[in-house]
Amino acid sequence: MDTKHLIITGRVQGVGFRHYVAHKARQFHITGWVRNRLDGSVEAMIQGTPENVAAMIVRAHRGPPKSAVTAVTVSDGTGDYADFVTRPTA
Question: Of the residues 18, 35, 37, 87, which is catalytic?
Answer without folding.
Answer: 18
